[in-house]
Write a structure and sequence with these properties.
Elements: H1 5-11, H2 25-33, H3 47-57, E1 64-66, E2 73-75, E3 93-99, H4 105-113, E4 116-119, E5 122-125, E6 128-132, H5 138-151, E7 157-160, H6 164-174, E8 180-184, H7 189-199, E9 203-206, H8 210-222, E10 228-231, H9 237-252, E11 264-266, H10 272-284, E12 289-292, H11 297-311, E13 324-327, E14 336-340, H12 343-356, E15 360-365, H13 372-377, H14 383-393, E16 403-406, H15 414-420, E17 425-428, H16 436-442
Parallel strand pairs: 3-6, 3-12, 6-7, 7-8, 8-9, 9-10, 11-12, 14-15, 16-17
Antiparallel strand pairs: 1-2, 4-5, 13-15
Length: about 450
């Protein structure tokens, strides 16, 4: 269980040496309790104390890695119920399930594993594949796993079967790739735990109650398996939300280690609309792995976008490098626009400029990743910042004119900008990016 600042203080040497960077051992202990510093900064802590504090500081939800190499994904390690309390750390992994008796098994797997979409300068993908032993035959399952592994090299896998013999055969093919084994139950946990230990693979445990999950967890960890994923085996939206929330609260608030593991949710439904609803709920509350059945870009894109929004640190907006960008092949007579380095703002503006067919210079100011209005209100995008950005960029030497287009939302800055940039004409652009093409065609002129 997490220790309070006073409890930590009692374990420290209490020398007040200040070598940790804090004025007293008590101040250091309080910061340590808030996870605002590291125990390693104390040079005089004993080995016994280090062991005790390391155990107390362990995250309430275990970090579990599935797969190997660049495409491996990690889930767990979360420390809060709500993103605004701190941040969510490891985003929900989105996987697609295929079956070993599917005629188009390999084609379906390749479509899912190869899906990618670009959004705000980032390439977003799915995270892996679930191969289910629907045939019930161990040989068919092993063959299917081998075919998918060959067709989708590097894709993290979940091997889904209640038959230890089928799992053993599949692990003979991909055991070194660290797949997630699904699932250990009350009936087969000994054999599944032995396989997970032998191949050093994470293991999912499945039960339809919290008591059942806790009991299985204790049995499997007692057998030496530490990397677990829990499957509450729920079917409906209400039960799924309730159990996932209970699992998260028990792990975080009660520090119940037996249930402090990532959650896997199977969202598959016959209708894609129902699957979308269940997957959305699972991403929001609190599944670490969500498994889909439909291979449909119209399903993937909104779920990936939702996940990105939830798992973007609200205190660290996605931003681009502040500098001078070229949209198309601009010349000395091309327009010069300025905006902020909030990623969504940049890609909205650059996308509309590109669609206009008119090459432009796009100057991006450092506004700590905030949008135009937000940064203006915070004093991070004012006339001084605009003038400094223009001067530091060296763009003046590349232009035959001295005209700068500022966003319409900060039209009130035009006069101040002209004072800070003598000899420059400040033009007020449109308020919304969608109006940029029309503005460039009808308003802009270098003379």
């Amino acid at each position: 269980m997490a220790l309070s600042g006073l409890q930590i203080y009692k374990l420290l040497p209490q020398t007040n040496c200040k070598e940790c960077g804090f004025p007293t051992c008590l101040a250091f202990a309080m910061k340590l309790a808030q996870k605002g510093t590291e125990l390693a900064k104390c040079p005089y802590v004993t080995d016994e104390t280090r062991v005790a504090l390391d155990a107390a500081a362990a995250p309430p939800i275990r970090l579990v890695t599935v797969g190997t190499g660049e495409r491996a994904f990690a889930v767990g390690n979360e420390t809060v119920l709500f993103r605004h309390e701190k941040t969510f750390v490891h985003q929900t992994a989105l996987l697609v399930r295929v079956h070993d008796d599917d005629a188009d098994l390999v084609e379906a797997a390749k479509l899912a594993a190869g899906y990618a979409v670009e959004r705000v300068g980032m390439t977003l993908t799915l995270d892996g594949l679930v191969i289910e032993n629907r045939s019930g035959a161990a040989a068919t399952f092993a063959k299917a796993v081998a075919a998918v592994h060959e067709a989708c090299p590097g894709a993290p896998l979940v091997l889904k079967s209640d038959d230890p013999a089928a799992i053993e055969g599949a692990l003979g093919v991909v055991g070194a790739e660290r797949p997630l084994i699904h699932a250990a139950t009350a009936a087969n946990w000994q054999a599944m735990a032995a396989l997970a230990t032998k191949h050093t693979c994470p293991l999912a445990i499945r039960a339809d109650s919290l008591d059942g999950l806790a009991e299985l967890s204790a049995q499997v960890t007692g057998a030496g398996v530490e990397d677990l994923v829990v499957d509450p085996a729920t079917q409906g939206l209400r039960d799924g939300l309730a159990l996932a929330t209970l699992l998260r609260r028990l792990a975080l608030k009660k520090n119940l280690r037996a249930l402090g593991y990532p959650i896997i949710a199977f969202a598959g439904r016959e209708a894609v609309e129902g699957e979308a609803v269940l997957a959305t709920a699972a991403i929001a509350k609190y599944a670490s792995i969500v498994v889909l059945d439909h291979i449909d870009p119209a399903l993937f894109y909104p779920l990936i976008t939702l996940r990105q929004n939830i798992y973007t640190d609200p205190q660290k907006p996605i931003q681009v490098e502040p500098k001078l960008y070229q949209v198309g092949v601009p010349t000395a007579d091309s327009p010069l626009l300025i905006t902020t380095n909030f990623s969504l703002t940049y890609f909205s503006v650059s996308g509309e400029v590109e669609s206009s067919g008119k090459p432009c210079w796009l100057l991006v100011a450092d506004a700590d990743g905030q949008s135009v209005l937000t940064s203006w209100a915070a004093g991070k995008f004012d006339a001084l910042k605009i003038a400094k950005t223009v001067k530091d960029s060296g763009v003046e030497q590349q232009l035959s004119h001295h005209k700068l287009i500022i966003p319409g939302h900060v039209a009130s800055l035009s006069g101040e900008c002209e004072e800070e940039l003598p000899g420059w004409e400040i033009m007020v652009g449109p308020r919304d990016a969608v109006d940029i093409p029309s503005y460039l065609k009808t308003v802009w002129s270098p003379s």
